[in-house]
Design a protein that fits this description.
It comes from Kutzneria kofuensis. By secondary structure, this protein is of the alpha+beta class. The chain has helices at residues 24-28, 46-59, 67-80, 115-123, 138-141, 155-166, 210-221, 266-278, and strands at 3-5, 11-12, 31-39, 42-43, 86-94, 105-111, 125-131, 171-175, 188-193, 196-199, 225-228, 241-246, 250-257, 260-261. The chain contains eight helices and 14 strands. The strands form two sheets. Strands 7, 8, 9, 10, 11, 12, 13 and 14 form an eight-stranded mixed sheet that branches. The chain has a six-stranded antiparallel sheet with strand order 2-1-6-5-3-4.
Length: 280
């Protein structure tokens, strides 16, 4: 089950050809995207996702996204969805065709949640730490590297996940050259210590997490403390709990890190999942 829609609110057959072979999103990864969780027809954090799409597009010097158009596309996908109660809604914006008239390519597509993701939500994951190859502060010194933009250039991220699989793990926590923690290839890290949720700051060149922000709002209302501050990779093995959070994976616990089994965080997972769901 898939639904494809455009910014004018029309839909199309997702099996039919859409991209030209000279689309710069295909040839060079020159574009941006967002993935939104939709539950029972309601998109979660739509505003923050569209805000982040705007920021990413500005970093790539793409034309300013048509917010009303994206909202029409989102509505068209949701209104034509006949799959399960959960859906992954992907928004894609590329620079368009290399030999075209400069018009960007833009579409929204609804997709079912993969069984693998549902299993990981329930059972947790094993992760490995891998160096990402840059140091904090590089994002400010070298904006052309697009650190912190949600661009289509995900080859490195996917290579890291494949490497993790060869090592017997499910996912990755990236670290910086100074040994501090960054993020996962498709997620944000949340560490628990002393009834406090901690996540690394986005100004070090990582993507601000929409799901992490929603979880932190709910946790604060419930009396938790929340902090956005640097985390040393050396802290991870002894943390009370570690979670990777994202729109589609929601809150997923890490039960094993670099081959070492971590504290049982099942109870915390249930509590944090309930807090996150209370936002909706």
């Amino acid at each position: 089950m898939r639904v494809l829609a455009f910014l004018d609110g029309t839909t199309a057959d997702p099996e039919a050809p859409l991209l030209r072979v000279d689309d710069l999103g295909l040839l060079r990864g020159d574009g941006v995207f967002e993935t939104i969780l939709v539950v029972d027809g309601k998109p979660r954090e739509l505003g923050p996702h569209l805000d982040r799409l705007d920021r990413s597009a500005a970093m790539l010097e793409l034309p300013e996204p048509d917010r009303a158009g994206w909202e029409r596309a989102v509505d068209a996908v949701i209104n034509n969805w006949t799959g399960g109660r959960d859906m992954a809604l992907k928004l894609v914006l590329t620079r368009g065709n290399e030999f075209g008239d400069g018009t960007p390519t833009a579409f929204a597509m609804g997709l079912p949640i993969a069984d693998k993701v549902l299993k990981q939500r329930a059972e947790g994951i094993a992760a490995v730490t891998l160096e990402r190859g840059f140091e904090p502060g590089l994002a400010q010194r070298a904006p052309w590297l697009l650190l912190g933009a949600k661009s289509l250039s995900y080859a490195v991220n996917m290579a890291a996940v494949r490497y993790a699989a060869r090592e017997g793990a499910d996912d990755v926590i990236f670290t910086a050259a100074d040994g501090s923690v960054l993020e996962g290839p498709t997620s944000t890290l949340v560490l628990v210590r002393d009834r406090t949720l901690v996540t690394p700051p986005s100004n070090i060149g990582i993507l601000p997490g929409t799901t992490q922000a929603a979880l932190f709002r709910a946790a604060e209302r419930a009396g938790w403390s929340v902090k956005v501050e640097p985390i040393a990779a050396a802290e991870l093995p002894d943390a009370e709990a570690l979670f990777l959070v994202s729109s589609v994976r929601c809150v997923t616990r890490i039960h094993t890190l670099d081959g070492k089994q971590l504290n049982d965080s099942s109870a915390l997972l249930r509590e944090l999942t309930a807090l996150y769901e209370s936002e909706y």
